């Protein structure tokens, strides 16, 4: 993804990222907990997004997706979900699942459908 000439780099969260992620979540996460597993997005070296997830036998459950306030509505969440879908396919998981979300309209726009209380998107 390019944002005015800048590329969003997405990679798995590592142990060494803990301090930076805690600071990011304190600033943008509204009390979100440190993810056990997830992805992080960086733009020009700055942490701009954190995706908390859990891998299950047939799916990847998205627990949270937080984008820096000043960069919301800039396609960052879409890119994070695209990267996650590619990763899920490589791990042979068929579904992305969101158990609960305040962003249901956004999730519909990026291909999720409602399945009871949760929203799902087929990966492959």
Secondary structure layout plus pairing:
Blueprint: E1 2-3, E2 6-12, H1 18-28, E3 38-43, E4 46-55, E5 59-67, H2 76-90, E6 95-98, H3 104-109, E7 113-115, E8 118-122
Parallel strand pairs: 5-6
Antiparallel strand pairs: 1-2, 2-3, 3-4, 4-5, 6-8, 7-8
Give a verbal description of the structure.
With 124 residues, the chain is an alpha+beta fold. The protein has one domain: Aminopeptidase (3-Layer(aba) Sandwich). The protein has three helices and eight strands, in the order E-E-H-E-E-E-H-E-H-E-E. It has an eight-stranded mixed sheet with strand order 1-2-3-4-5-6-8-7, sandwiched between helices. A hairpin with a 2-residue loop joins strand 1 and strand 2. It is globular and about 35 Å long. The mean pLDDT is 89.
The fraction of residues assigned to DSSP E strands is 35-45%
Share of helix, binned:
25-40%
Number of domains: 1
CA radius of gyration:
14 Å
Roughly how many Å apart are the termini?
21 Å
Following the backbone from N to C, one meets helices and strands in this order, namely EEHEEEHEHEE
- CATH superfamily membership, which one? Gcn5-related N-acetyltransferase (GNAT)
The CATH architecture: 3-Layer(aba) Sandwich
The name of the CATH topology is: Aminopeptidase
Strand count, sense and barrel status of the largest sheet are: 8 strands, mixed
Look at the helices and sheets and give the structural class: alpha+beta
Query: How many E strands?
Result: 8
Could you give a quick summary of the protein structure above?
The protein is an alpha+beta fold. The chain has three helices and eight strands; from the N terminus they run ββαβββαβαββ. Strands 1-2-3-4-5-6-8-7 form an eight-stranded mixed β-sheet, with helices on both faces.
